[in-house]
Specification:
Blueprint: H1 8-26, H2 31-38, H3 42-54, E1 58-63, E2 75-79, E3 85-91, E4 96-102, E5 107-113, H4 133-149, E6 159-166, E7 169-171, E8 176-179, E9 188-189, H5 191-198, E10 202-206, H6 207-217, E11 228-234, E12 238-244, E13 247-248, H7 280-284, H8 286-296, H9 304-308, H10 314-324, H11 326-347, E14 351-355, H12 357-360, H13 364-375, E15 380-383, H14 393-405
Parallel strand pairs: 3-6, 6-10, 11-14, 14-15
Antiparallel strand pairs: 1-2, 3-4, 4-5, 7-8, 8-9, 11-12, 12-13
Helix pairs in contact: 1-3, 1-14, 2-3, 4-5, 6-14, 8-10, 10-11, 11-13
């Protein structure tokens, strides 16, 4: 790594970060391989690795598998999973999820809380509902984290960082939810109240960008991270994230990845979120599927959600549509493939990952992949390795990346 423009402490932190990321991603990597990959001298790597071993963040895992016997032995290095804990938070219209994981990303505990407006809080006189939302969430997350981490003895360092992924448009630099009408009616600051409550560094981003980072950091994909990844989430709405070199791109105005609000039909309902006619989300979201199924059964449109349950899973609704109206199901797959194909043409990704319950089982993944591959250049389209029941993994990935970026010296606290 070049040292031009860096002072000594910053350069040391940057090089420690590079070592932590590589050891986490590759696993069983030797010192000389780190030196080659990072452009550092072997002596510099030895000093930094020894520091990280002394700090309890890296361990020697014995002789590297397959290493030649001739010459100096190659000792494999690994991240020590129990060196610290990371706290992940996921917020959407259905719930607030709080998750505790170790430094390998292994989940140690999960708590599902009510959605933000259902969380208990007593507002001060004259205080708006949106004004107290950050404090309400922070108090609930702190209580959940205390129950997850209290007295477990999981870690020597305690919780070393926290991250939060939330639906809607997010200013990740300020930690503010800019627009999410499904949760609140005005911008809501999230980072500041969470950091005040947790006494931890907290990273905040859009939930889909956070999940895309989790795909690259917390699954087997980390060992062969694609240079350009298009990550698509389906259920209950549609979102996407474009990552280059392992970093999600937020866009100039924090609007990158709005795949669900690209137009795929000349007619259709007006989307209550973007105001467009015929956008993908207005035609394939869980709400849209509930309405379509309600019409099939002859029920009033406004009774569709009651008929199928407001919390109906998108995969269940897709399967019901396939069984009851094959033509409508074909249109769903075709419209999704059209939007995805357009995104592939624009981004030219190395890989496309489809995340969400509709893609884990049933024929929808294969239907969409077949249509895309029939019309576009060959592309690596794969299912996500993550469980859609754990959206807070995105927040955990934000916390882990921040911890690595700080050279393994992020703020920590005993909760």
């Amino acid at each position: 790594m070049t040292s031009q423009g860096w002072n000594a402490p910053d350069l040391r932190k940057r090089n420690r970060a590079g070592i932590l990321r590589l050891v986490h991603r590759q696993g069983d990597i030797a010192r000389n391989e780190l030196a080659l990959a990072l452009g550092l001298t072997k002596a510099a790597v030895t000093i930094l690795v020894n520091e990280l071993i002394d700090d309890g963040l890296i361990v020697e895992a014995g002789e590297q598998a397959g290493a030649r016997r001739a010459g100096r032995r190659k000792i494999a290095l690994r991240i020590r999973p129990d060196a610290g804990l990371i706290l992940g938070v996921g917020i959407d219209a259905e719930r607030v999820q709080v998750l505790l994981a170790d430094l390998s990303g292994a989940v140690l505990g999960v708590r599902n809380l009510p959605p933000p407006r259902a969380l208990p809080h007593a507002p001060a006189l004259g205080e708006s509902e949106d004004g107290i939302m950050g404090a309400r969430i922070a108090a609930a997350v702190y209580a959940a984290a205390a129950k997850l981490a209290g007295g477990t003895g999981f870690s020597a360092l305690g919780i070393v960082g926290a991250g939060l992924g939330v639906t809607g448009r997010v200013d990740e630099e300020r930690g503010v939810s800019l627009r999410e009408p499904r949760l609140w009616s005005a911008p809501v600051a999230l980072r500041e109240p969470l950091e005040d409550a947790l006494k931890l560094c907290v990273s905040v981003d859009n939930n889909v960008r956070a999940l895309a980072l989790a795909e690259l950091l917390l699954t087997d994909a980390r060992s062969e991270s694609p240079a350009g990844l298009l990550f698509v989430k389906y259920g209950p709405g549609v979102g996407a994230s474009w990552t280059m070199g392992g970093t999600p791109w937020p866009g100039a105005h924090h609007r990158s990845g709005e795949l669900g609000h690209t137009v795929v039909a000349s007619e259709g309902p007006i989307c209550p979120y973007c105001g467009r006619v015929g956008c993908l989300e207005s035609l394939v979201s869980a709400h849209a599927l509930e309405l379509a199924l309600g019409r099939l059964e002859g029920g009033p449109k406004n009774h569709a959600a009651k008929r199928f349950g407001a919390g109906s899973r998108t995969d269940e609704l897709c399967e019901l549509l396939r069984l009851r109206d094959s033509a409508a199901y074909e249109r769903l797959a075709s419209r999704f493939a059209l939007a995805l194909g357009n995104a592939i043409e624009l981004c030219d990704p190395t890989a496309v990952v489809l995340y969400g319950t509709p893609f884990r089982q049933g024929p929808l993944f294969d239907e969409i992949a077949r249509r895309v591959e029939a019309n576009e250049r060959p592309c690596d389209i794969r299912r996500s390795a993550m469980d859609p029941a754990l959206p807070a993994l995105g927040g955990a990935a934000l916390a882990l990346e921040r911890f690595f970026a700080d050279g393994g010296a992020a703020c920590s606290a005993r909760i």
